[in-house]
Amino acid sequence: MLSLTKAYWSSFDGEIAIFSGALVFAAAVTSTPEVQEVVSLLAYSLGANILISLTVLAIAIPASLGLHMVVPATITLTLFGPVMPSDLHVALLGLAALIGWAYGAMAALGSLAFLTACRAFSVSPTALAKGKTCASWLALYALPAHCCYSYKNIKNSDIHPL
Prior knowledge:
- It is a single chain.
- By secondary structure, this protein is mainly α.
- Helices cover 77% and strands 0% of the residues.
- The protein contains 9 helices and no strands.
- The protein has helices at residues 2-9, 13-30, 33-46, 48-64, 70-80, 87-107, 112-121, 125-130, 132-150.
- It starts with a helix and ends in a 12-residue tail after the last helix.
C-alpha cells in the first residue's frame, strides 16, 4: 500500500499544473464582461440557491467523466461567488463545492483516492463508481439540494445570518 501511494504521489507535479491552469482559465472566464452578464442574469432569474445546487452538479458530473475536480470547482466558485447575495450564501456555495469535490474524490475514475481504494480492496473501478457509491452520493446530494430549494427566498425572509 505504501509503495502504491508513493508511486501515485511521484506524479504530483501534474496536479500543480492542473490547479494553475484552472486558476488561469477561471480568471480569464470571469474577466470577460459577457460571461459576467450571463452569470448575473442567471443569478437574478434562477436565484442564488439554485446556483448553489447547480454547483454540486457542475463539479460532480465532469469529475465522473474524468476531469479533475479542481477545474470545475475553481470555475464555479469564481463565477458564482461574486453574485451571492449574503455571507450565508457564500458559505453554502463553498459547502456545495466541497460536496461535489468529495463525490469526485470517491467516484471519479482518475482520482487518487478512488484508484487507491480500487487497488487496496481489489475492486473493479467500474463496479465501485457505478455501484453503491453512486447511489449513496446521489442520496447525499438530495439533502443539500432540498435545503437550497426550501430556502428559496432566504434573502427576502426575516431570518438574518449572524
